[in-house]
């Protein structure tokens, strides 16, 4: 039992690392998605078993050599959901003739926090399709800001940017709002050129609202006033997340790692957000994550030994 496995599961792929007990990476691999709320626990369990098998085969070891496996994945934010995957995986593995001593499921955000600061205090802000913020204080208390989902939250996310952008398009169609470059881009990229098409895409074809976020960013970079207003509002929301976490952590200086394409890629959105942090929250220090989320899972596995 001298190996650990850490997994970072998402909606498109699952990354897996196997290490020794000190956390030295011995092998890395990746496989299919592991959002079990969408795919079901059986499909995800098969994906996980395949990744574990790749690791044991590569290192010429057996399942008995693995002390702890920690998976951090989308959809595991509630403990009851995480336990369901834990139990179903153990049952599925047993059915397939495999057995593991310890298999633990955490949220993807939780392992990202551990990886970003190598288990030490700090905070992460995730702004991708959705948004949420996690922090860890000097007493190892885990704090959260946001994360209420698309109906009640996700401020500053791709989902909200896209939704607001298409609301602006609908208002232009009606004459209730001014002309905006977002409408031109929606027509070019998604063939949305009339109210009827917009309504059909949203309510019948399950259009991915977050996919419209780049239109808002591109329009803002061209100087479009409506897009710039959306950018201002949503960067303000992200700054509010950060200031709230700063107050909760109670540290003089708060280290902040950014996760998600909206705020890690260089664009007008991330630039404005970072300028606001620098101007208004001088005791918040933005830094690059120490390690990838999969290594955060390994750090959590070490603590479970």
Written description of the protein model:
The structure is a single chain. The chain has 305 residues and is an alpha/beta fold. The protein has 2 domains: 3-118 and 292-304, Nucleotidyltransferase, domain 5 (2-Layer Sandwich), CATH 3.30.420.40; 120-288, Nucleotidyltransferase, domain 5. Helices cover 50% and strands 20% of the residues. The protein contains 13 helices and 10 strands. The chain has helices spanning 36-39, 41-59, 79-95, 108-116, 149-152, 158-174, 181-190, 195-203, 213-221, 225-249, 261-264, 268-280, 293-304, and strands at residues 3-9, 14-20, 25-31, 66-73, 103-107, 122-127, 131-136, 142-146, 254-259, 284-286. The strands form 2 sheets. It has a 5-stranded mixed β-sheet, sandwiched between helices. Strands 8-7-6-9-10 form a 5-stranded mixed β-sheet, with helices on both faces. Helix 4 packs across helix 13 (293-304), helix 6 (158-174) packs across helix 9 (213-221) and helix 10 crosses helix 12. The longest helix has 25 residues, at 225-249. The chain is globular and about 65 Å long. The mean pLDDT is 92.
List the helices and strands and how they pair.
Layout: E1 3-9, E2 14-20, E3 25-31, H1 36-39, H2 41-59, E4 66-73, H3 79-95, E5 103-107, H4 108-116, E6 122-127, E7 131-136, E8 142-146, H5 149-152, H6 158-174, H7 181-190, H8 195-203, H9 213-221, H10 225-249, E9 254-259, H11 261-264, H12 268-280, E10 284-286, H13 293-304
């Amino acid at each position: 039992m001298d190996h650990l496995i850490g997994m970072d599961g998402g909606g498109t792929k699952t990354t897996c690392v196997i290490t020794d007990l000190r956390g030295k990476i011995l092998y890395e691999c990746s496989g299919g998605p592991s959002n079990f709320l969408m795919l079901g626990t059986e499909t995800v369990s098969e994906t996980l078993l395949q990744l574990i098998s790749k690791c044991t085969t590569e290192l010429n070891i057996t399942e008995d050599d693995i002390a702890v496996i920690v998976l951090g994945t989308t959809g595991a934010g509630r403990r009851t959901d995480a336990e369901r995957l834990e139990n179903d995986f153990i049952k599925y593995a047993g059915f397939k003739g495999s057995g593991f001593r310890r298999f633990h499921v955490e949220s993807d955000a939780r392992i990202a926090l551990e990886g970003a600061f190598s288990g030490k205090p700090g905070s992460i802000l995730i702004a991708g399709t959705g948004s949420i913020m996690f922090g860890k204080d000097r007493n190892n208390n885990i704090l959260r800001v946001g994360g209420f989902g698309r109906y009640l939250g996700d401020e500053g996310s791709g989902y909200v940017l896209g939704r607001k952008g298409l609301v602006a398009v609908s208002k232009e169609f009606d004459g209730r709002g001014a002309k905006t470059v977002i409408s031109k881009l929606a027509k070019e990229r998604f063939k949305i050129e009339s109210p009827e098409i917009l309504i059909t895409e949203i309510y019948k074809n399950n259009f991915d609202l977050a996919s419209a976020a780049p239109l808002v960013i591109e329009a803002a970079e061209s100087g479009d006033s409506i897009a710039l207003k959306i950018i201002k509002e949503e960067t303000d929301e992200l700054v509010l997340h950060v200031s709230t976490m700063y107050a909760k952590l109670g540290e003089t200086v708060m280290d902040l790692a950014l996760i998600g394409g909206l705020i890690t890629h260089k664009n007008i959105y991330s630039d404005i957000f970072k300028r606001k942090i620098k101007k208004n929250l001088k005791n918040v220090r933005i830094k690059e994550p120490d390690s990838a989320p999969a290594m955060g899972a390994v750090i959590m596995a070490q603590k479970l030994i």
